[in-house]
Structures are given as structure tokens and as C-alpha cells.
């Protein structure tokens, strides 16, 4: 759904008290000075923009969207991108434009290790779907403290040393990290230089995870064979941005996983009901850690 | 692997007796007059060309390749194509060429019914993988006599009436049928006209399953939203063929599933050993039915 259609506007509120603000990427300042606010419920999974807006009341509980349909959509996009990178379907598309009939070698999925950065709800769903297809999956989480139960075929790694070790064995990197001060710019030259030549990068999280110049340099050096990018520093991606025309970049319009209004409405209703009846709120953001 | 590299040549044989001919799409006539031949082992899953070659000795057992790596590769290609059709990734690729940022609506996988034509080894693996992703799958088999055990989430249909009924409910049709006199030209105007507007067609079996002019007409009328075609009447697809340049056709160079030399060699070795030790041969073709 278009993000701003759901944002509250100050004029509509006309000074009445507001218990719950249900927001999807509202313009900065939208939530300042709302009287009586007891819950900010995001319709997006990523709350980095809300956290960056200093006018959002800091003492009001903030809940992320955790929507099973959105998690599944994210896993679908990650799986599609991995299959396309593994089986060379992006190269075939380029060959088609030149009317070039050129089958290339076929690897088995168990020969294509995939590294999933981020092991929250979306990372877990993605890792599970990839493992079901036979990919050897490593799921990396920065924080060693809260690692979810392991899934069949998924190896969980935590901490920086484990990340650097995993990169050298990786054919496809999928970024599903939350954007925090710890993860901003993580997809940089230093990380990319650890990958084997020709690896694939799939960024489905936030544009600010990438150092765009480093990604471009890694593509041009051949370190990266192909990048699938759904998110960018500036969105919509400006029409003159070189990613649009790079032969080994697939640009998606921030569409890897959209909130599904049907299931998201139920998630919101449950939290509103919890607020009304005094039960614990779900999916609360820990502001200090940023997600 | 390139097909003809594995074909025996008459010159190499120099008149010696030959027990087993291990062949991958050999030129017609290659197997005529081999003395002592006791088994023809195909390295391809589809044996329609061998059956069409009247010089292939009719009394010699003919075995198809049934290779788990090839089955898995086929399921990967089918899943990739289905995900791309379902989530609009082909449209996004077209939009990228115009630097157009245009997210579109997102459906859940359980809203995208998929029809798999053919329910042999490849059809079963494909149906299973699609059902794991939440797609409602109907697997259709012409012959009601030999239906394999059903899989979770997969509805099996047989016979022509069931096919026509299933088509009306289908968003994506995947063809994995063997090419026989019964299935030649099955992807024709009559079948395509049963599909809902904008459905996707994925032909991974044989070019002769398609009436090319009918597929092109269905694309141009909008009946078909997109076609993913791996196989063609003439291969390599001639450079002036309109499929190469159609904006809603994805051309693959007969690469949906290649024989994997490692696992295929074991399949062949088992059959050669069975021949030597008098055990039953596996994956024999019933010439009367064509697969």
C-alpha cells in the first residue's frame, strides 16, 4: 500500500486526544504533540525512520509490524533472487536481449552456500525456505544474546569474526538486517572483499546498509557477479542513478515485501485490544538497540 | 553438457560389438546396425527424438534418464518462474529498462493456483516444491491408470475434462509432459483460451508441445500475461524469431534442467550393472506410449 495514505495528518486530528497512532512511514513531525498517545503502531517492519525522527514521543511504546504475509513475501523475494543467481537466470535475460542462445553450467543447490544477514522473523522464514530447496544456509545475527532456535539445514552464526569467516564460503548474501547505528553501511568494501569472486548480493532491507560506491566498485571489479537491490539511499531511485542501467544490477522498487492490509489489520487490532484490556503489547521496539 | 559430445560415432565403433549405447540426443541413424546391442541408455529424460528415429533398433530396451539432480534442477526452474510470475519480477525487469519505479500489488502465494502438466518424477518434485511455498497446486496427468501417491497440498487430476476445469482456476501453467502423439501441440489456442486473462505459461518440456502461433496470439490478446519458454520447435531458437524480442516472453536456452554428469553416471552404472548381472533394468521406456 502507498505509505503516506495511511499516515495520520495533523489537520484531521484537530486537537482531539489520540490513543493509538497507526503509521506507515509518516512525514517527520507527524506524531509530535499528539495528546494522550499510548501506542505508536508501525505498519512497516523497519522502524528506523520513526526512530530517527526526534519529534516522535520517546516515552510512548512503539510496536513494529510483524506480519506473516509480509514475512512470507520477503522469503519469496529472497528465494526468487537466490534461484536466479544460482541458476544464471539474470545472465539468460541479458543473453535474450542479444538473441544469444548460450546454456551455461548447472550447479546443484547444495553447492551454493547462502548467507542470510539478520535472523529475526524475516530472516528465519527466508533461511527455512532456502534450506528446504537444499541451499546450505548460514544465518548471521549480530547479537549473540537472543538467537532463536535453529532450523534444519540452517547454521546460525553471531559476532563479527563469524561473519568474516562465513563470507569467504558464500555464493549469495541476503541482507535482512534492521537498520541501526551498528548495521548502517555494513555492506561496504571491507565486507564485500571477503566474498569469493562472482558472488551475488541481495539487499532487501534498507538502502543505508549499503555503501553504494563500494557496491558499484565490487560489481565493476567482478567481486560481485550480480546485485539484486530493492532499497536505496534515495527512494524512488533517481532516474539518472547508474544502478538502473548497470547490466549486472537488478533494481526492484522497494517491493520485496509489502505489508498485507488483511493480515496487518489483525496484528494492529490485537495490539489495540491489548492496550484497551491491559494485556502486554506485542512486537515492541527496544529503542536503545534500534529494532 | 553439450549433447553431441556424448553421442557414439559410428567411426569410433569400428564394427566391434556394443552391449550398451549411452546416448544424449544422438544424430538420427547413430544407433543403426550396432551389433549385439542390449541396452540403449538415454542421458536425457525426454526420449521423443530417439523414438522418432526409425533407425533405432526397436527390440532393444531403451531406458530414460531419471536423475535426481535433474529433477531438482527442473523444480528450481519451475519455482523460479512461478515466483517471478506471481510477484511480478518480469514486469519489474521491464520497468528497470525504462528506469521506472513502480511497485505493484502483492498477492499471497495461496492466491496463485498453479497447474503442473505432467506428473512423473519431474512433475512430482516440482509440485512438491511449489506446494511447500504455499501455492495451491493441481498436477495433471493424462493417464488415469498410474497416478502416484498424492503429496500434501497437491491435487491430482486426470483426463481431459479435469484439465479443462482446472485451467479456468489457474494463474500459472507449467508444462512438464513427455512429448508423445497424445501431447504434441497440447499448448494450443483451445487450451490457452480456458485460462483467466493474464495467466502465465511456463514450457519446460518440448517445443512441439506448443503451437507457437497460438502462444504468440494469446500473448498479444492478453490472455497470457507472460510466457517463460525453455524449449522451441527449432533449437537453438533462430535469432530472428519474434520470441526473442517479445516484451512478455522470457527465453531460456533449453537449460531448465540439464543432466548432471555426476549423478547421471551413477544411474547409468546401475543399469549397466543390472544388465551384466541379469537384474531388472530401471526406467525403461514403454515405446507404445512414448515415454
In short:
Chain A has 291 residues and is an alpha/beta fold.
Rg estimate of chain A, integer Å: 20 Å
Secondary structure class of chain A reads alpha/beta
Secondary-structure element pattern of chain A, one letter each? HEEHEHHEHEEHEHEHEHEH
Number of strands of chain A: 10
SS field, number of helical segments of chain A: 10
How would you characterize the largest beta sheet of chain A? 7 strands, parallel
Mean pLDDT of chain A: 93
The most extensive interface between chains reads:
A-B, 44 and 44 residues
| Spatial sequence of strands, sheet with the most strands of chain A | 6-5-4-7-8-9-10
Low-confidence stretches of chain A: 1-7
User: In oligomeric terms, what are we looking at?
Assistant: homodimer
Distance between the termini of chain A: 22 Å
Helix content of chain A: 25-40%
Name the beta content range of chain A. 5-15%
Describe the global form of chain A. globular
How would you describe what is shown here?
The structure is a homodimer of 291-residue chains. Chain A is α/β, with parallel strands linked by helices. Helix content of chain A is 32%, strand content 14%. In chain A, strands 6-5-4-7-8-9-10 form a seven-stranded parallel beta sheet, with helices on both faces. Chain A has a three-stranded parallel beta sheet with strand order 1-2-3, covered by helices on one side. The longest helix of chain A has 20 residues. Chain A is globular, with a radius of gyration of 20 Å. The interface between A and B is large, with 44 and 44 residues.
